[in-house]
Specification:
Length: about 280
């Protein structure tokens, strides 16, 4: 199988293409020419293809000989909120270019959507269900809802994954403002597990035509303040976080419908163990 991964040089995309190659399949990492390609450069079984999802000609060329597309390319917050026109062009029209290029090729599409499509749910009873109504609250969530709709209406074989915020075991710089409240319910997912979910959705025929929430599971459910404290304590770094004053689009999620995808491989304590090892390696602990 030959799989095109849009946004394939990014943090999640690079993990996806590596996992594809490790299974013995062929991956094509498709991303903007100006991004860093270091994460995927020289990986056996991975071809690098610079291009732009908003350019129909480039997308059509990229899809030639492709059996499936994992579509990750998107403008993310906070950048998505500073330029509505660009966000809609990349996230919606770019998705339309992918769908149009797939056309009658028989290729399948795995679409990376977001739990942001559920809107602000902090005042509701958790967990958020897959069937929860979609509620656009910013440019990003609006663009993902529109992209989901056009894929659904296209008739292309597809799976939609609404993915929770991604966690990485790395020395992550604390943002000026944490994008959720300290007392807010949060549930993230480890980057390798999110990539595994995308691949499982591709290889599991039972997933075709369905939508799933992809999140870390019960061990990853906590408050925003608890997550930040435990993350940096594990690294051995003292921080003074400033949290958002407003509730944002992250919560606890019901992931039961997608458990057959077998992607929840790392519990939160395992994640903390990786951070502790990194902290020791860097001389922080």
């Amino acid at each position: 199988m030959r799989v095109l991964v849009t946004g394939g040089a990014g943090r999640l995309g690079s993990e996806v293409v590596k996992q594809i190659a490790s299974r013995g399949d062929s991956a094509v990492a498709f991303d903007l020419p100006q991004v860093s390609w270091e994460a995927v450069k020289g990986v056996p079984g991975v071809d690098l293809l610079p291009g732009d999802v908003t350019d129909g000609k480039q997308v059509s060329e990229a899809i030639k000989g492709i059996d499936a597309v994992i579509h990750l390319a998107a403008l993310l917050p906070p950048r998505s909120e500073s330029n509505r026109e660009l966000t809609m062009r990349v996230n919606v029209k770019g998705t339309a270019k992918i769908v149009e290029a797939i056309g009658s090729t028989g290729a399948s599409l795995i679409f990376a959507s977001s739990v942001a499509t559920y809107g602000i749910t902090a005042m509701e009873e958790p967990p958020v269900l897959t069937s929860h109504p979609l509620q656009a609250h910013d440019c990003y969530s609006e663009s993902k809802i529109k992209a989901e709709r056009l894929i659904r209406d296209s008739g292309v074989d597809h799976v939609t994954l609404r993915i929770a915020p991604i966690a990485v075991a790395d020395l992550v710089e604390l943002p000026e403002t944490i994008p959720y409240r300290g007392d807010q319910r949060v549930e993230l997912i480890y980057v390798e597990d999110a990539a595994r979910a995308l691949l499982s959705a591709l290889y599991e025929s039972e997933a075709t035509g369905k939508t799933f929430i992809i999140a870390g599971g019960p061990t990853w459910r906590m408050t925003g303040a608890e997550y930040i404290q435990r993350f940096y304590d594990a690294l051995g770094v003292e921080v003074e976080p400033r949290f958002s004053d407003e509730y944002t689009a992250v919560d606890w999620y019901d992931t039961s419908q997608g458990l057959f995808l077998g992607y929840q491989g790392l519990n939160f304590n395992g994640f903390l163990g990786m951070l502790k090892a990194l902290g020791e390696q860097l001389g922080l602990r």
